[in-house]
Structures are given as C-alpha cells and as structure tokens.
C-alpha cells in the first residue's frame, strides 16, 4: 500500500477538476498543471499535487484494483448494523466518505515559540526543554525523502511561532520543496500577517493547519494571554479567502471547559467549515502552569469525534497524535472507528523529534519512521480503509 492512488481526469472546469478511480468520483483543485481529460494525477486534501504518466498510472491501478475492492467490502461490513454512538458515527462516515483515508506526514521543524500559551509544552517560558531549529536545507531534504522515497503526498510543516523563520526564509522553503516534490504543503506556523500567508500561498503552500483551541472567549483569554479569539477566527477566515485548504479545531479537556463548551467548539468548527476537523485531548506538560490538571479520558475524545461526524457528515476528521497518546496500542483504530478518516505520521528527524514536546509521552517517539508507516498501513488494511484522497465537497 502507498499513501495515495492515481486518478483519471474526467472533467475540467477552470481550476476544478473531476477525478475518477474504480468508479469513485472526487473533485480537486488544480493550480500547478496544464491538464487534459484522460491524464492521471495524484490529489491530496482535494488538491492536485502531481501528474502521473498514463502507463505508470494504469499499472498502479491494476495492482490496486483487487485490493481496493476488498478494502471497500471490509469497511462496509464493519459499518453495518450500528448500535452505539461510535458505531453510528462510523456508519455515517462510511455512507458519506466511503473508505477513503488521508495519510499525511508532519515535519516539526522548530520548537522555539514567541507565545506563552498556558497549555503548551514549547511555550516561551518553559526553560526545561531543549530548543532546536532545522535549517532550510534540512527541512527540504526531509521533505524530499518523505515524498520521493517514502511516497507521501501531503506534508504538514509545523513549528512554534518562531520569528527566526522570516517571510523570506519561509518563501525559500516552500519554493524549494515545490521544486523537488509533488506534494500538498500544509503550513502550521501560527499567527503571521495575512500578506505573508498570501505570498506563501502563491509560492506553493496550499493548506494551513490553524486551530482556535476553544470557542469560549473567557477560556481562550486565560489560555493565550494577550490574544483574542476573534483575531484567530478572522485570520482563519482570511486564509480561506486566499484559497487555503484550512484544517482547524480545538482542544478537549481544557480547565474550565464544560460539556456545553465542547458542543460550541464543534459548532464553531462546523461554522468555519474547514477542509478538515482537528481536535485532540489536552495533555498537561510539567513545564506549564497547567501541569497538575487532569487528562481527559479516551471516551471523552471519541465522543467528540462521533458527535462531530454525526452533526457534520461530510466532514474530514483527523486522528491526532494526542488522541493516539492516550491509548498507544488502540487509540488510532478507535478514533477511526468512531468517525475519523485521516491520520498523520511524524517524519521529524530522530535527533529533533523528542524535543518537540508540546505534551509528554507522545505516540510514535520510540518508533522509526519505517516502523510507524508499516503500523499505520497494517491498521488501515485491517479496517478496510484505502489511502485515497477524500476530495473536495
């Protein structure tokens, strides 16, 4: 198995194309290539990231055909006769999104941060962690390996809000990755001026992971001193206006958060209408003021996923590493079987990986990238999910 299946272009309508594989129809946005019906492409996150020669694509599809149909049958069988909330959510996912499951890679390139968020282990005033920054060349090399050797079609480039990476450096980074890699670049770099984000979009970054963390303005103000929820929502909306495929969501289990707040968090995520929902548990870090706060139970997180899936059946929902950390052996499977349909694999170089300590004990830190990939693909195969692009609504 790989992380994407090539699709045949069957219709072009300006920058929007329609892609087909094995009778499945998906829509994707194209901003990089001159395409004609009959060509084959890889799409990720609803964005065309590379083209594929016809002969190569047809050989890949032939190899995939039998496996793909078997996976669909298994997924459908597991989604039948739902009884519990989680089973109902999984059946809803199967009905509206079929067995598609996006597998993204993530490179955490700096743990320096100018912010002092109460819940985050890499907050500015945490003196207990070892700081690092990857050079532009290091990040590009890692992206090149991820895409051209390991087969990833979407990469999240994540850091703290680190001003050392100026607009010039970020533009250089995005351009160099696009030169070497057919990949969807997802930026997770926090608050930056809108013109900077606009220039990065034009340079080739087409998606942004930017969460609002809580819809409760009072809790937001306490967790992010000096920041306003309205400003974060305004930025998210402006990124969507630019054209970014936005991934957004919240933390589950913040101090003072109520059941009502969680429902409001789901509602706000739905109102934002991001390309993908992202929410995971708050796991306290010893180097923060919230070190002694409780960790939410796994069922609390799964319930939020299930409710979000049922309320927004067309949504794409990622299983976060934080969720997997709550249950390292079964968390990913439980998340996927509760309505989620996306996963991320950490591709940060081993010498840096342990230092991106936004919370302790993260899942996957003890594994090689190759072992983690094998684990994820084995999981997807066991529940009938195919690593195909979910496409745009």
What features would you describe in this structure?
- This protein is of the alpha/beta class and 393 residues long.
- The chain has two domains: 72 residues, SH3 type barrels (Roll), CATH 2.30.30.140; 288 residues, Aldolase class I (TIM Barrel, Alpha-Beta Barrel), CATH 3.20.20.
- Helices cover 39% and strands 20% of the residues.
- It has 13 helices and 13 strands.
- The strands form two sheets. It has an eight-stranded parallel beta barrel, surrounded by seven helices. A five-stranded antiparallel beta sheet has the order 3-2-1-4-5.
- The longest helix has 25 residues.
- The protein is globular.
- The two termini are 25 Å apart.
- 48% of the residues are buried.
Which geometry do the CA atoms define?
A: globular
Q: Gyration radius, to the nearest Å? A: 20 Å
Number of helical regions: 13
What is the CATH C level class of the largest domain, in words? Answer: Alpha Beta
- For the record, the CATH architecture of the largest domain stands as Alpha-Beta Barrel
Poorly predicted runs = none
What is the percentage of strand-forming residues? 15-25%
Tell me the major beta sheet: 8 strands, parallel, barrel
**Helical residue percent?**
25-40%
The total beta strand count reads: 13
Structural class: alpha/beta
The overall number of domains is: 2
End-to-end Cα distance, whole Å, is 25 Å
What strand order characterises the main sheet? 6-7-8-9-10-11-12-13
The H-and-E topology, N to C, reads as EEEEEHHEHEHEHEHHEHEHEHHEHH
